Amino acid sequence: MIQQRANFDWMLKDLADGVPGIEMIVVLSADGLRIARHGGDPDAADRVAAACAGLQSLAGAVAHEIPDSDGKMKLVIIEINRGYFYLMAAGPNAYLAVLSDTFAEPGLMSNRMRDLVDRIGPHLTSPPRRNGQTV
């Protein structure tokens, strides 16, 4: 679990400040629980986290169809009307999701997300759970 939450929050803010157009950043566990967020309201962040659980599972299933792939999802980008959605593997059982408007440049966004994950990936870890309890 993330130990120094205040330090982690400023890192999410740093990403938001570094890429114009970010609406919301969500860090989530593989089972769709919100770990942290920046921007947006908590209920919206919870909905995004829940939806991401299904999306990362789907992306992993597709990745298994690529010859010689390890089946692990690294990055999903979805262009939507008036914005983009990004989902990146961020650590064991953890993901980084970003919603942005159309002014956010996808190449810059994915590079900044990757930089953030490289810097703090070990802190973006969510232990597996069984019956709602950490294993």
TrEMBL record:
Residues 9-100 form the Roadblock/LAMTOR2 domain. This is Roadblock/LC7 domain-containing protein. It comes from Streptomyces fuscus. The lineage of its organism: Bacteria, Bacillati, Actinomycetota, Actinomycetes, Kitasatosporales.
